[in-house]
UniProtKB/TrEMBL annotation:
Keyword Phosphoprotein on entry: yes
Ranges in a coiled coil: none
Region (Disordered): 1-25, 408-480
Xref: Pfam families: BAR_4, PH_20
Protein name as annotated: PH domain-containing protein
Comp. bias regions, Acidic residues: 16-25
Organism of origin: Lophiostoma macrostomum CBS 122681
Domain of life: Eukaryota
Keywords, in A-Z order: Phosphoprotein
Domain PH: 297-405
UniProt feature, compositional bias: Polar residues: 444-463
CDD domains: PH_Slm1
InterPro entries according to UniProt: AH/BAR_dom_sf, BAR_4, PH-like_dom_sf, PH_domain, SLM1/RGC1-like_PH, Slm1_PH
Statement: the UniProt record of this protein carries the keyword ATP-binding: no
Length: 480
């Protein structure tokens, strides 16, 4: 669109350079600027939405961290096991609670800052863009309408001039004064001059708008940069403070001495915990009810040798005569290696003892170590014993004789077993360390007249006797 050098030279409208009524759209530039302002308004609107969403997210995070806080808000279960002073696990959890509450508050503060300080920056900018749109519509838009109106008037007179010049040629120049082509032509020039003035005015307005748009867009970008800079400060402050709070939590946990809780636990429970410097318990230092009752003290105890029925060799075992009038046989006198259950038990009031001959003496009776059922089916057997010395044999014989049901004067050499050997089930396992080998001898039977049937009848179950060495206790009376 060209601008005439002078409004008083409308004749230039008739040159071949330009048309009187250009075919351009006078509102095209205005619409283009309007669309651009809409684009800027939407861009700023996106930033508003972003800040608003971030604000809502921080507010929601504040609530979520309140839920996180509830996970450690209650006192610790079995919390009495932890030292309640600072520097321990309880203090660490208190620090976690405090910092988690601080993180929640920081999110709330960030949400307030975004809504109260950052969001208004973009809201004001969007308002400025809307005002600029109104200014464009009322200014350059109104000028475009005036140009269109002036062009319409010019176009009308140009058409009227065309009609009258055609009439002039057909009627030979006869017409009314108002229809004189000369007058009409001057009227066209008048209206064309007004049209061009409006076009030039509108052009100046558009140039002014165009120039101002560069500055306005620079203002928009500066405002966006300022707003995002403020936004960065807010979120950076939040991030740094949250980082510091998490760092404080971790630092507090790392500063807990490794033995802090243990030392406190030891001090609080020193009356319950075991003193490692205290000596271990010993059976010798333990007492229990009836430990020294007279029925628990042996009449005589020690090691004796008993001849087996099959191998006819002597095996050494540990024997005890108890105040309950039992003669018990054990593998050993050790009370701790295994449960000391008797390998053989004779109830002496139901037994017969022969005479003592040197180191040897015989006892006849039933093995009652198997209980009532075993006792019912057991048979009486004559057991041949041998002490280590004649004096020890005499002491054993006297102790057994005092509890035995019957005493005979038969010596072991003349004793003959009254029960079949085939019914004997006890075989002593020969131990090379403790067994004493002797030639097989056939002892004579002990006199059994006057014994009732219960003492001379019955069968005995197998009573295996292994030759485990038994040590007497010389310091204890009656032990060998």
């Amino acid at each position: 669109m060209a601008t005439p050098t002078s409004p008083t030279a409308p004749s230039r409208a008739y040159t071949n350079d330009e048309e009187a009524i250009p075919g351009e759209d006078t509102s095209e530039v205005t619409r283009l600027f309007g669309e651009r302002l809409q684009a800027w308004k939407h861009a700023v609107g996106y930033l508003e939405d972003y800040i608003t969403a971030t604000e809502k997210t921080n507010h929601a995070h504040g609530k979520e961290y309140e839920r996180v806080l509830k996970t450690v808000k209650d006192p610790l279960k079995q919390g009495h096991h932890f030292d309640q002073s600072l520097g321990g696990i309880a203090g660490m959890f208190e620090n976690i609670r405090s910092n988690t509450q601080g993180i929640s508050n920081q999110h709330y503060d960030t949400a307030k800052a975004l809504k109260g300080s950052i969001l208004p920056i973009f809201e004001r900018l969007r308002t400025e863009i809307k005002n600029k749109t109104k200014e464009l519509t009322k200014g350059a838009g109104k000028g475009s309408k005036l140009v269109d109106k002036a062009r319409a008037h010019t176009q009308k007179h140009i058409e009227l001039l065309g009609q009258r010049t055609a009439t002039y040629d057909s009627h030979g120049g006869k017409m009314l004064a108002a229809e004189d082509p000369y007058v009409l032509q001057r009227g066209v020039l008048y209206r064309l001059n007004k049209q061009i003035q409006e076009e030039n005015n509108n052009r100046q307005d558009l140039i002014s708008v165009q120039n101002s748009f560069a500055q306005f867009e620079a203002h928009i970008i500066q405002t966006i940069q300022h707003g995002l800079g403020q936004f960065m400060q807010v979120v950076n402050t939040q991030a740094e403070q949250i980082k510091a709070m998490y760092g404080d939590m971790v630092g507090t946990a790392q500063r807990v001495p490794l033995d802090f809780e243990w030392n406190g636990f030891i001090q609080r429970n020193n009356t319950v915990l075991i003193d490692p410097s205290a000596p271990a318990r010993s059976v010798s230092n333990v007492s229990f009810p009836n430990q020294d009752h007279r029925s628990t003290q042996p009449v005589i105890s020690g090691s004796l040798e008993r001849k087996g029925k099959l191998l006819r060799s002597y095996d050494t075992n540990y024997y005890v005569v108890t105040p309950s009038k039992f003669l018990h046989e054990f593998k050993t006198d050790d009370n701790f290696a295994k449960d000391p259950a008797p390998e053989l038990s004779l109830y002496l009031p139901d037994c017969i003892i022969g005479g003592c001959n040197g180191q040897k003496f015989n006892v006849k009776g039933k093995d009652v170590s198997k209980g009532k059922v075993g006792n019912t089916f057991s048979m009486s057997h004559e057991l041949q014993f041998k002490a280590h010395t004649p004096q020890a044999a005499t002491q054993w014989w006297e102790a057994i004789r005092a509890a035995a049901g019957q005493v005979t004067g038969e010596l072991p050499e003349s004793s003959v077993p009254t029960s079949p050997v085939a019914g004997e089930g006890s075989v002593a396992a020969l131990s090379p360390q403790t067994s004493v080998h002797e030639k097989p001898e056939q002892p004579s039977a002990i006199q059994t007249q006057g014994l009732d049937r219960q003492q001379t009848a019955g069968t005995t179950g197998p009573t295996p006797i292994s030759a485990a060495p038994a040590s007497g206790v010389p310091s204890e009376p009656g032990r060998y």
